[in-house]
């Protein structure tokens, strides 16, 4: 298991979301099993579901970045499970100003948003695994996921990165 395992799982999970017509919602399940029943997710739960499938997080363990720009860990042992394999790096810069330091598989936190850095495409654009509202057909809550692997709006400050320790 390494940081690239998260990218493989992010791709598989994104394809599952699109195939099964998952919708964007704040009313998410706290486990991957529950998510498959409800068929809803949001940006942070998508990342956590990937980590649950990899065995890094347990069902009931989630995290996200709140409106105050703080990383919030939900569920007993979540912070310890993440800290065992990831290092939290304070960034506080626009993604383009941190582009040369990002590594594929980095989990990125913004105010009220979370995604996974996938890498740089052939057009030299940063690409992300991102299950935010903008990845849906309506770009609103309730929208059905269409494209989760994409270039994002880079005008929001990247506050923190979780980087694989290995």
Task: Itemize the secondary structure elements and their pairings.
Elements: H1 3-19, E1 23-24, H2 32-38, E2 40-41, H3 43-53, E3 62-65, E4 71-74, H4 78-85, E5 86-93, H5 95-98, E6 107-110, E7 113-120, E8 126-129, E9 149-150, E10 158-164
Parallel strand pairs: 1-2
Antiparallel strand pairs: 3-4, 5-10, 6-7, 6-10, 7-8, 8-9
Protein name: NlpC/P60 domain-containing protein
Helix content: 25-40%
Count of distinct strands:
10
> How many discrete structural domains?
1
Mean of all residue-level pLDDT scores: 96
Order of helices and strands: HEHEHEEHEHEEEEE
Please provide a brief summary of the model.
The chain has 166 residues and is α+β, with helices and mostly antiparallel strands. Helices cover 28% and strands 27% of the residues.
Task: Give a structural overview.
By secondary structure, the protein is an alpha+beta fold. It has one domain (3-164). It has 5 helices and 10 strands, in the order αβαβαββαβαβββββ. Helix 1 packs across helix 3 (43-53). The relative contact order is 0.22.
């Amino acid at each position: 298991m390494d940081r690239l395992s998260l990218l493989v799982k992010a791709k598989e999970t994104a394809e599952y979301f699109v195939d099964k017509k998952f919708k964007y919602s704040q009313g998410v399940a706290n486990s991957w099993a529950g998510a498959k029943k409800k068929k809803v997710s949001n940006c942070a739960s998508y990342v956590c579901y990937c980590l649950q499938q990899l065995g890094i997080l347990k069902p009931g363990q989630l995290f996200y970045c709140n409106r105050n720009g703080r990383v919030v860990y939900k569920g007993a042992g979540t912070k310890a499970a993440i800290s065992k394999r990831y290092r939290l790096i304070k960034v506080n810069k626009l993604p383009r100003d941190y582009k040369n330091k990002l590594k594929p598989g980095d989990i990125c936190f913004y105010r009220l948003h979370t995604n996974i850095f996938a890498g740089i495409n052939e057009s030299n654009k940063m690409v992300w695994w991102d299950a935010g509202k903008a990845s849906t057909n309506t770009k609103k809550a309730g929208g059905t996921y269409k494209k989760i692997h994409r270039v994002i709006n880079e005008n929001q400050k990247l506050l923190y990165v979780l980087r694989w320790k290995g």
